[in-house]
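hiii, so i know i said id send this last week but things got crazy w the move. better late than never?? heres the sequnce for the chain we talked about at the cafe, plus the structure i predicted for it. fair warning i was half asleep when i ran it
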Amino acid sequence: MIAAEGLPDATERQAQLLRGSLDMCLLALLAAEPAHGYELVRRLDTAGFGTVSYGTVYPLITRLHRLGLVAHAPQPSPSGPSRKVYRLTDTGHDRLRGWREQWVQFVRVVNATLDVRPPDPGDHHEHVGIGR
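okay and structure toks below
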């Protein structure tokens, strides 16, 4: 899993980060290869996201389908009823391209912000304390 182990809020933080990027990640996985819901959950786990529940993936896939970003077709199952195999639509590919660009820019800004170093205590900069 991506979350920093041992931090008290690591699980909640991981959930927040995932909520903001899971739709984009699902589109990227489907751009690589069409898949059914179970396979998408497996791919997310293999990618390092840890266990993402079907209860999270299926409503999101339904929303992406409603938005016209993914399409589905029935595929016979070796055991049981047929299953839906999802693929990206042309609109989905376009949206993924835009989201990738947006993500790269966002990560660049976040990384630059995280790289800002506080001044050394010996520096002669004026420090403003909170609550003063």
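btw The beta strands are 70-75, 83-88. thought thatd interest u
miss u guys!!
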